[in-house]
């Protein structure tokens, strides 16, 4: 199942790369993103990798309870680097959640112990 | 790191941003609450409830760091992750910028990730002040705070309006932050951000190109020309600047000037942008042929 999906994706990307050379909307203005990328040779490779990271992250977001549109919108606000770092690691990444009432109490007890007995 | 012993040089010993708003968090939603705190402080019209749809992950019952940075951009704020240093955190707060931090208030193997907003500190008292969870003003000793903050590798961020640079911003870091904001923020916001950036680092060619591209996209060709001319004066050999300036001038109907510039741009053949420059060259020649 996974390999079928990968196959289809690779075919799609191969066609997409032939048909859509990396360009910005304007005829001949060189885009800011292009200037930011150090070498043009790296560019095509990065486009593919980035596409894969983005779809992977969108899928994981959906698996974590977001609807398809929300998942796409949220990934759209991330940079290529951010998506690259996050892809495949969403389950492990820290997710800030709790006010920490109970845990803070535990922490206070820990510090009382630490300062009273360890010193 | 011993803040009690060595206070960072040049930082006030006391500061508190009392006017920073407070949004008590709902269940598990300290991410949206913390983000609303700093966004509303900068004048954005937003509520924690609205931010839930941008930063809350139901199955994780929490918010990811990347999303905290990304969501701010939707409100045309430049989100900037601070260097992992206590001194930088203090400097930002002292400069009037409340800082979102990620803490782990758990102990040992039990992780309990939590976002809070640092709004002040008092060196003589040895305390930091936070908007945290359901507490409007949580006073927490430096040592305890550092213990909880260390586990996120001292993760901290600010969300600032586009014209206002973080005090501790670095040139590459802040440039990346602006270009990230451009993805989903307003065009006008990107213009203010790039302009402020260029006031601080006037030699940066990427920021000049970015600012000019924003003007160009809005149809403000005269402004784009002004920015690119200033950049060309500082970087006379930049193919990108020459190309974009030639394109802008050509769009303004000044093809003779454009041609002189683009002929300089197509000379160095090894530039990664040589192909784009040749396209522009051809376009200008076509336009000149048409007008004759």
Short description:
The complex is a heterodimer of chains A (119) and B (292). Chain A is an all-alpha fold and 119 residues long. Chain A is built from 6 helices and 1 strand, in the order H-H-H-H-H-E-H.
Could you characterize what this model shows?
The complex is a heterodimer of chains A (119) and B (292). Chain A has 119 residues and is mostly helical. Chain A has one domain. In chain A, 67% of the residues lie in helices and 2% in strands. Chain A has helices at 2-19, 32-36, 40-63, 68-76, 80-86, 101-117, and one strand spanning 95-96. In chain A, helix 3 crosses helix 5 (80-86). Residues 19-26 of chain A have low confidence and may be disordered. By secondary structure, chain B is of the alpha+beta class. Chain B folds into 2 domains: 14-160, Cysteine proteinases (Cathepsin B, Chain A, Alpha-Beta Complex); 202-291, Tetratricopeptide repeat domain (Serine Threonine Protein Phosphatase 5, Tetratricopeptide repeat, Alpha Horseshoe). In chain B, 49% of the residues lie in helices and 15% in strands. Chain B has helices at residues 30-41, 48-55, 65-74, 86-94, 142-150, 171-182, 187-200, 205-217, 221-234, 239-251, 255-265, 274-291, and strands at residues 14-16, 63-64, 78-81, 99-104, 113-122, 127-132, 135-141, 156-160. The radius of gyration of chain B is 24 Å and the shape is elongated. Chain B starts with 13 loop residues before the first strand and ends with a helix. Chains A and B meet through helix 2, helix 3, helix 4, helix 5 and strand 1 of A and helix 1, strand 2, helix 3, strand 4 and strand 5 of B.
């Amino acid at each position: 199942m996974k390999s079928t999906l990968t196959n289809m994706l690779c075919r799609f990307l191969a066609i997409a790369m032939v048909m859509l050379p990396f360009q910005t909307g304007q005829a001949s203005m060189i885009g800011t993103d292009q200037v930011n990328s150090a070498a043009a040779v790296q560019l095509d490779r990065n486009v593919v990798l980035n596409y894969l990271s983005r779809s992977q992250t969108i899928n994981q977001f959906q698996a974590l309870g977001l609807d398809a549109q929300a998942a796409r919108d949220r990934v759209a606000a991330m940079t290529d680097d951010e998506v690259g770092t996050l892809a495949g690691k969403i389950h492990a990444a820290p997710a800030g959640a709790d006010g920490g009432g109970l845990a803070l109490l535990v922490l206070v007890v820990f510090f009382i112990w630490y300062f009273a007995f360890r010193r | 790191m011993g803040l009690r012993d060595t206070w960072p040089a040049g930082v006030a010993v006391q500061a508190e941003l009392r006017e920073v708003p407070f949004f008590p968090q709902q269940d598990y939603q300290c991410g949206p609450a913390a983000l609303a705190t700093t966004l509303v402080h900068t004048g954005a019209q937003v509520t924690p409830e609205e931010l839930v749809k941008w930063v809350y992950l139901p199955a994780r019952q929490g918010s990811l760091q990347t999303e905290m940075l990304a969501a701010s951009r939707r409100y045309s704020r430049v989100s900037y992750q601070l260097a992992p240093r206590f001194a930088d955190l203090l400097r930002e707060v002292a400069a009037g910028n409340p800082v979102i931090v990620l803490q782990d208030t758990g102990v040992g193997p039990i992780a309990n990730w939590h976002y809070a907003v640092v709004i002040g500190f008092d060196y003589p008292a040895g305390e930091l002040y936070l908007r945290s969870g359901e507490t409007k003003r949580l006073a927490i000793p430096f040592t305890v705070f550092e213990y909880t903050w260390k586990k996120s590798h001292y993760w901290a961020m600010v969300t600032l309006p586009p014209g206002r640079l973080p005090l501790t911003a670095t040139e590459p870091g802040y440039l990346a932050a602006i270009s990230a904001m451009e993805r989903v923020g307003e065009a006008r916001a990107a213009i203010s951000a790039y302009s402020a950036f260029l006031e601080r680092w006037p030699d940066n060619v990427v920021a000049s190109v970015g600012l000019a591209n924003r003007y160009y996209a809005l149809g403000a060709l005269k402004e784009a020309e002004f920015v690119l001319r200033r950049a060309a004066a500082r970087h006379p050999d930049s193919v990108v600047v020459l190309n974009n300036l030639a394109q802008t001038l050509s769009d303004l109907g000044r093809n003779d000037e454009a041609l002189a510039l683009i002929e300089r741009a197509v000379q160095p053949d090894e530039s990664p942008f040589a192909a784009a420059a040749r396209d522009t060259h051809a376009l200008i020649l076509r336009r000149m042929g048409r007008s004759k």
